[in-house]
Amino acid sequence: MAELRDLYQEVILEHSKAPRNYREPAGTNHKAEGYNPLCGDRFTVYLEMDGDSIRDIGFQGAGCAISKASASMMTQSVKGKTKAEAEKIFHRFHELVTGHSQGQEAELGKLAVFSGVSEFPMRVKCATLAWHTLEAALEGKQEKVSTE
Ligand code: ZN
Q1: For labelling alongside 92, which of 28, 84, 115, 121 has CA 20 to 30 A away?
Q2: Ligand 1 center to residue 65 CA distance, Å?
Q3: Which ranges of the chain does DSSP label H, i.e. alpha helix?
Q4: What is the pTM of this model?
């Protein structure tokens, strides 16, 4: 179990050092800014929507390793998905990091590396910030999102 935990930590560190989709896509037509005052994490999520589908996604900003890795992996997992599919993944992810998973973690694939976050309630907001920001961008809201 300790080895598995080390592996998870390695994946999170690797994503935080070299975040994927760390850019503003040229065709961005939705965006939202998220802020977690407890930790100081601050990210902007950019979406290029094609009707109901996420054609392209990117993010920029600064934060702790967990928030940055979560944003990076979030962009990978929802790219090419519909709004409804992305919301479903967020729902499962939220269950996972709050320790309320109902045995459907397999649907999350690589996002399962965040399961350990449920042991650290303060970190849940770090792990979900990018997702809340994605949700706001999908809704087309322009106001800033705060986890507080
Ligand atoms: Zn954080």
Answers
A1: 28
A2: 7
A3: 2-17, 65-78, 83-97, 121-139
A4: 0.91
In residues, how long is the chain?
148
The CA distance from 12 to 116, in Å, is 11
Domains of the chain: 2-146 (3.90.1010.10)
- Residue pair 66/117 in contact by the 8 Å Cβ criterion: yes
What is the rounded CA–CA span in Å between residue 111 and residue 105? Answer: 9
Tokens 């999170």 — which residue? Answer: 12
What's the rounded Cα separation, in Å, for the pair 70 and 80?
18
pLDDT tens, position by position, 86-97 = 999 999 999 999
Tell how far the Cα of 148 is from the centroid of ligand 1, in angstroms: 13
Residue 127: count of CB within 10 angstroms of its CB: 30
Q: How far apart are CA 53 and CA 115, in angstroms?
A: 27
- pLDDT, residue 32, reads 96
pLDDT at 34 (0 to 100): 97
Give the distance (Å) from ligand 1 centre to CA of residue 52: 30
Cα of 49 from ligand 1 centre, angstroms: 28
